[in-house]
Design brief:
This protein is α/β, with parallel strands linked by helices. 38% of the residues lie in helices and 18% in strands. The protein has an eight-stranded mixed sheet, with helices on both faces. α1 (5-14) crosses α4 (72-87) and α3 (51-59) packs parallel to α4. The protein binds S-adenosylmethionine (SAM). Its EC number is 2.1.1.33.
Length: 264
């Protein structure tokens, strides 16, 4: 029987407690227990129809995933997508993915300090009017919450098509004293890697030829230590490149001697 209307959607969600959590506050500090292991927990805030969290969970069995959205209907659609993605792997119920109906405002009622390892913010609502800036999920008031629920390896991975949200977010990260890395103004400039899982919005905007902006924010102290070890690698100059540079300089320094005109 096809369930219709608000009541039908709620009944649908209530009928799948092995995948959908309607009162996530009850698991605060106990998510590892719910998953039955202590794998790191990665959360997408505002998952929409769940394409990204479903695909990413299938590709990364070493982590646990939680997709969060505030609308029942989106959680229902995400549940269909999650089941379909995991069915291809032979699982009736996704073993490492839960979907929660919740508002990000309540994040600290849902997760204990240090309970998460990664937060994905994918195409968060841009809230373009200045008077709504505090609703943007990269506003410093949200970043303060993220810092508290993330663990020592904690990071935020952020993608958006919105230039104004990206600009606001980079400033917000910097003003909150956070370390950014892997900043890209055009994530798909060199084509799409097969392993890359697109979100619904990413797919739509890519189709319109729009640039996708992305950056990572390094938060936990261990993540920062690892980042320190590699941060200058993209700028390292190899010995071959150094030799080529020296040869180029030497060539530029060789004086050009005009040939003497031979007198006839
Ligand atoms: C623009 S959509 C992006 C959906 C998806 N991440 C994607 O990239 O396709 C933003 C989503 O965030 C959800 N959202 C916005 N604010 C939220 C909040 N405070 N708490 C939970 N979900 C929120 C919306 O319901 C919507 O599904």
């Amino acid at each position: 029987m096809r369930l219709r209307g608000r009541k039908g959607i709620r009944e649908n969600l209530e009928a799948q407690p092995e995948l959908v959590v309607l009162e996530p506050e009850q698991y605060k500090g106990r998510w590892a227990e719910l998953f039955g292991n202590d794998h790191p927990i990665y959360v997408e805030l505002g998952m929409g129809k769940g394409r990204f969290i479903s695909g990413t969970s299938v590709r990364n069995p070493q982590a646990n995933f939680i997709g969060i959205d505030m609308y029942d209907e989106l959680v229902r659609r995400a549940s269909e997508k999650a089941r379909a993605a995991w069915a291809e792997q032979g699982h009736d119920t996704p073993p490492s993915l839960m979907l929660a109906r919740a508002n990000v405002e309540k994040l600290e009622d849902i997760f204990a300090p240090g309970e998460l390892e990664r937060i994905y913010l994918n195409f968060s609502d841009p809230w373009p009017k200045k008077k709504h800036a505090r609703r943007r999920l990269t506003h410093p008031r949200f970043l303060d919450m993220y810092k508290r629920v993330l663990n020592a390896n904690g990071q935020i991975h952020f993608k958006t098509d919105s230039e104004t949200l990206f600009e606001f977010s980079l400033n917000s990260f910097a003003d909150s004293g956070l370390q950014m890395t892997n900043i890209s103004l055009n994530l798909h400039r060199d084509g799409i890697n097969e392993e890359h899982v697109m979100t619904e919005y990413e797919h739509k905007f890519m189709g319109k030829g729009m640039n996708i902006h992305r950056c990572e924010v390094v938060i936990g102290e261990k993540a920062l230590e690892r980042y320190e070890e590699v941060r200058m690698e993209p700028y390292r100059i190899s010995s071959d490149e150094r030799a080529a540079m020296a040869a180029e300089e030497a060539e530029n320094e060789t004086p050009v001697v005009e040939e003497e005109k031979s007198e006839v």
